[in-house]
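Figure 2 data, in text form.
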Amino acid sequence: MIVRIMGEGQLMLADSHLAELNKLDDELLAEVESGDGPGFRTTLRALLARVRELGTSLPDDSLEPSELILPSPDATLEEVRDMLSDDGLIPG
């Protein structure tokens, strides 16, 4: 799966990592819904860091269709709220 972190680029990420990432995504969804700004910030950074750790960066000149788009690390709670679906940021 190709994942884009807004403002950073794309990474190739194995589907086998989605279950682990969904746990962080569920936490993020709960924090956005409750308006927990500090918790939201911590979990968003943890989610993006884990995607970076597990994924392999694609070259900057590569423009593949992204199957998943994640917010930048400095995105606001409101911006992330607008990106959320019922499943959060990550399907499943």
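Caption note: The chain has three helices and four strands.
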